[in-house]
Structures are given as C-alpha cells and as structure tokens.
C-alpha cells in the first residue's frame, strides 16, 4: 500500500512532519478534579470496605454464627486435626452439649455431620436463610449496561443522526461528547455502538465500532497497537472465510463435479488460474499480517501496521475514545492528530472519531487543527435533576430488588442525595445498592430511609478516606496538625497555630519544613478538597488570618493518616502538643 509522503507524528523513533507539533504543553489536571478519581476508586472497592466497616462498626446482633466457636464448627473433620488444644476444646464442648464422645474409636463420621446439621447452623446458613432483598444485584453495578436510558433520548438521537452516515458508506463527522461524571456518556455511547453494529449486520454493510477506554489504554503506542490487532484479527477472519469458499470452488473443479464455467459463473473470476492466484494472494496476506507486540516496536511501524490493517478492505470505522482526556494528559495529542488525518490517506476505508470526556479543559491543550477536527460535532450531557434520577433508579430497582423490598421514600431520597452531587447517576445507583446491602447485612426485611442515610454516610466516608490516603506527605502533616489542635479543643484554628505544630511534627519525623506561605497554600488545597473549612478573618490592625476547622470525622481521618508509614511514629507526638496548651 502506498501511503504517499505522509509521515505520522509519533512519540518516539519516527520522524515528524512538523517539528512544532512535537513540542506539546504538558496537560495538567485541574485541582478540582483531583478528588473525583479517588471517589470513583472507592466506588469500585465499595464491597470490600463495606464488609469491614459494617462488621467493625456495628457487629450484627442477629448474626450468632461465630466461626471461632468450636461448638459451631461447621467442619467436624477439623476435630481430627493435629492441634491438641483444638481437640480438647471441641471435645469438651461436644460432650458438654450431650454430643457423642469423638475420641471413641468407632466414631461414625457421617453421623457427626448429620447431627451437626440438625443442631447447629453452619457459617453461611444464617446468611442464606434470610429472604434476600435483591433479585439481581448486578443490575446496580457500574459494569451493567442498561437496555433503556431514560432522559438521554436527545443525546442518543443526535449521536445516531450523525453516525447513520456510516451505514450509508459515508464518513460520519467526528463527535466530541462531554458532560460531568455519571451523566450517562459511556452508557449512551455503548448503547449506540451496539445498535450501530447490529444494524450494520442486519443490512450487511461494512461498518464497525471500536471502543477504547483511554484510562486503561493511555499511550499512542497502546491505542494504535490495540486497534491494529483488532483489525488484524478481523481481517484474518474475513480471509479465512473467503479461503474456505474459494477452496471449496477449487475442490469442486478438481473433482469435476461441475464444469469450470458453472463454478465460476457469477464470481469475479474468469478462469481457474485467476481463482488460484487469488487463493495464493489471500494466503500470503494472512501470512504477512503480524500482530503488534504490546511494547517494543517503533511507533511509526505500529501506525503503518494499523493503517494497512484498517485499509485492508472497504469499511467505515467509528473509533470511540472514552476518557479521551486521560490519553491527552498522559501522551499529548499525537494519537488524535494522526487518527484525524488518516482519511485523506486511506484508499478503502474511512474512520471517524468519537471522543468522550468529563473534562472539557483538555481541548485547551490540543493542536488547533486537532481541536477543530475532533469537535466537528459536540454533544453535551447535562447533569440529571432529582426527578430524572428517580426515573433512572426506578427502572433499575424494578429489576434489581424483590417486589416490595423498598419503602416509598428510598428512591426519592437516593435521587435527592445524588442530585446534590451534581446529578450523578453513578452515585445514585451506588447509594441504592449500598442501602440494599446495609439492609441485607442487618437482616432487615425491607430497605428503609435509614439505610439510605447510612449508605450516604458510608460512601462519603469512603471518599474522605481515599482522598486523605492519597494526599502528599506534606499535606498529611499539615492536616495532622489541624487534627491535633482540634482534638485539644482549639476552635477557629489559625494558620500560625497550624504552622507551629506542623514544624514540630516535621522535626519529629525528620521531614523538610516548608515555609509558612507554602503551608498556607496547602491549607487552601485541603479546603478545596473539602477536608478543612477555612475562612479568612480580619484581625483589624493586625491584618488578616485564616481560621479553619476540620470538615471530616476526626477519628477516621486520624487513623488514615497514621496508617501512612512515614506518619506512623507521630502518634508519640501527642504529649508535646498537650504540653503547649497546658502552659
Ligand atoms: N439515563 C440513564 N439511565 C439508566 N442508567 C444510567 C443513565 N445514565 C447513567 N446511567 C448509569 O449510571 C452509571 C454512570 O453512567 P456512565 O458510566 O455512562 O457515566 P459517564 O457519564 O460515562 O461518567 P464518567 O464521566 O465518570 O465516565 C452507569 O451505571 C450507567 O449505567
Ligand atoms: Mg464514562
């Protein structure tokens, strides 16, 4: 294939057409977004932490199954184990309860198992016996793709109107989709892509959609390699199909089943020699298509491989780049530049890009040409209001929960809480699922308002824990100073007080001491993250100072800070802080 004189922009190894382009402004994540990611991380680990915090904070009173209690030992075989203490304990217990003497030589093991089933509940029996609240919990998880997306008709229709040209063999305009987190961008894009592919199969038109999550696939090399390998695989399947068809024609001819003219009638071949050539050609093509390794090739070779693979036959390809801002943040706009220029070089195929982002600021860092090409069409996903969230939750709840498992106020309350959080459907669904799980753990029959409130507290705490855990060490020390002051009953803490304690703490753990001005900046950052609440107060002729208080629970935050190995030793610093206030 002839690529003309176009050379792709690559991030290593290859040459660039345009030397200016390789000099990119590094894309910086705005501070306001810094706390969004941890929130999402904590969502994914919600289940694990749920176990911990629920079990730890509120041991389930109805759960009387104690795995450490030998009387409840679900596995009698363990009593024959080598640990003599265990043997004595369990023997005593079973004898005390009128059980058989297990030391007897003719112990009937099967009998023991049956007895055990009758008398005692196994570890899981209690948990299983409760009438479950959920019918299908998976439906509330982020991985579930709903078949219906209420309140996204406008956006879905706009996407469809633009992408329908792909089904007509034309190149759809590139689309940029943006909206805050949890507004249904990914769910809608996946829905549209499924519809597009199924329609293209129905009408047998060569239209394909490739979805890439750029949070995972975040370099030009990886994006191009993933695309190249996908198309190589598809091409191999097409080649295998054709070869099968041609080889059976060839076999028919060899066996003289039908004469040559009849075999070739209606095909692109006039003679059997042409058919043979085509078979050889396809075999050579299949041989030549080499998969791209996950690392190691120069980027321009990966690009050429992708180019050849996608152009192997006629088709329109829609490339969906979800979380496109992550790709630009990590590796600049080379990938987008190369992809958006490909159509002028491709002979058989056409590509169209659909970028999805929850942060529009990333376009500021794009080459103006890339920016205008990518944003040919823009679709905005506005936040949901409480009523819309109610509908979304109701649709899911109908499938997720048993009938009558929710009191009437559960869904409106989840919707109201999530609407306060910039109309985030993910948050609303998380609340509903967590509320259901909390109700289930406490063996309640139905999910009630109190479970939603507990779920809200739990999710909020998870978020705080995650934000605090990922703070830089210096910010952690500053925060710890605030906590110590607050624990010692100081209210309206001012910057000077924080700085004094901070200095002592740094000396304790041998950390660099920053200037008071820097510490004030760190306090402002903690304020932006919602960890402290700082206000500037005027002290008349003494100037102005910042006064602050903690906006997060003291105990939990302190525990997270102390779990950092560098700060772990600080615990011993308590006396000197106390001493300061005694004077
Ligand atoms: N209109 C809707 N109907 C049903 N479920 C929805 C709707 N909108 C969003 N959801 C659900 O809410 C959750 C979050 O949606 P989605 O992942 O699409 O958000 P997003 O806009 O891509 O967010 P982010 O920017 O964080 O990636 C998913 O579980 C999704 O199924
Ligand atoms: Mg998304």
From TrEMBL:
Residues binding ATP: 183-187, 384, 396
Region (Disordered): 1-117
Pfam families cross-referenced by the UniProt entry: AAA_16, Cdc6_lid, WHD_Cdc6
Stretches assigned to the Cdc6 C-terminal domain: 479-561
Stretches assigned to the AAA+ ATPase domain: 171-385
Keywords assigned: ATP-binding, DNA replication, Nucleotide-binding
Listed transmembrane segments: none
GO molecular function: ATP binding
GO process annotations (BP): DNA replication
Acidic residues bias (residue ranges): 45-78
Role of this protein: Involved in regulation of DNA replication.
Family, as annotated: Belongs to the CDC6/cdc18 family.
HAMAP family assigned: ORC1_type_DNA_replic_protein (MF_01407)
Protein name: ORC1-type DNA replication protein
């Amino acid at each position: 294939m002839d690529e003309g004189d176009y050379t792709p922009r690559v991030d290593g190894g290859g040459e660039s057409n345009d030397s200016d382009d390789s000099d990119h402004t590094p894309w910086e994540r705005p501070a306001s977004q810094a706390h969004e990611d941890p929130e999402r991380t904590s969502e994914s680990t919600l289940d694990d932490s749920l176990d911990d915090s629920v079990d730890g904070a509120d041991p389930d009173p109805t759960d009387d199954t104690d795995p450490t209690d030998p009387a409840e030992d679900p596995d009698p075989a363990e009593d024959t184990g080598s640990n003599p203490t265990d043997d004595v304990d369990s023997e005593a217990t079973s004898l005390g309860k009128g059980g058989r003497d297990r030391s007897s030589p003719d112990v009937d093991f099967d009998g023991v198992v049956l007895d055990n089933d009758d008398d005692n509940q196994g570890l899981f029996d209690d948990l299983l016996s409760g009438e479950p609240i959920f019918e299908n919990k998976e439906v509330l998880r982020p991985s579930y793709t709903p078949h219906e997306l209420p309140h996204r008709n406008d956006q879905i229709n706009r996407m469809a109107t633009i992408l329908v040209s792909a089904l007509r063999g034309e190149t759809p305009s590139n689309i940029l989709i943006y909206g805050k987190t949890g507004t249904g961008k990914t769910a809608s894009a996946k829905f549209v892509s499924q519809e597009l592919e199924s329609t293209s199969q129905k009408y047998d038109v060569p239209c394909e959609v490739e979805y890439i999550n750029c949070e995972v696939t975040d370099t030009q090399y990886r994006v191009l390699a993933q695309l190249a390998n996908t198309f190589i695989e598809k091409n191999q399947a097409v080649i295998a199909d054709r070869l099968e068809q041609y080889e059976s024609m060839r076999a028919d001819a060899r066996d003289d089943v039908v004469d040559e003219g009849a075999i070739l009638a209606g095909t692109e071949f006039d003679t059997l020699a042409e058919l043979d050539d085509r078979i050889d050609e396809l075999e050579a093509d299949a041989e030549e298509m080499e998969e791209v390794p996950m690392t190691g090739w120069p980027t321009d070779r990966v690009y050429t491989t992708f180019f050849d693979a996608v152009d192997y036959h006629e088709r329109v390809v829609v490339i969906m780049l979800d979380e496109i801002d992550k790709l630009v943040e990590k590796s600049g706009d080379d990938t987008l530049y190369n992809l958006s220029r490909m159509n002028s070089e491709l002979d058989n195929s056409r590509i169209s890009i659909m970028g999805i982002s929850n942060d529009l600021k990333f376009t500021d860092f794009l080459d103006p040409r890339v920016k205008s090409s990518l944003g040919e069409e823009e679709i905005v996903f506005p936040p949901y209001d409480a009523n819309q969230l109610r509908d979304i939750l109701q649709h899911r709840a109908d499938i997720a929960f048993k009938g009558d498992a929710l009191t009437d106020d559960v869904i409106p309350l989840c919707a109201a809480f999530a609407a306060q959080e910039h109309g985030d459907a993910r948050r609303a669904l998380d609340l509903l699922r967590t509320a259901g799980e909390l109700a289930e753990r406490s063996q309640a029959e139905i999910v009630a308002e109190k479970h939603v409130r507990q779920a809200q507290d739990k999710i909020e705490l998870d978020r705080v824990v995650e934000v605090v855990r990922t703070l830089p060490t210096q910010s952690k020390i500053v925060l710890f100073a605030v906590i110590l002051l607050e624990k010692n009953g100081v209210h309206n803490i001012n910057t000077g007080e924080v700085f004094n304690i901070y200095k002592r703490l740094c000396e304790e753990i041998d950390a660099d001491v920053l200037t008071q001005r820097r510490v004030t900046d760190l306090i402002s950052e903690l304020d932006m993250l919602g960890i402290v609440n700082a206000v500037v107060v005027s002290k008349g002729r003494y100037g102005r100072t910042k006064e602050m208080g903690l906006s997060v629970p003291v105990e939990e935050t302190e525990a997270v800070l102390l779990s950092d190995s560098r700060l772990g030793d600080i615990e011993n610093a308590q006396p000197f802080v106390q001493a300061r206030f005694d004077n």
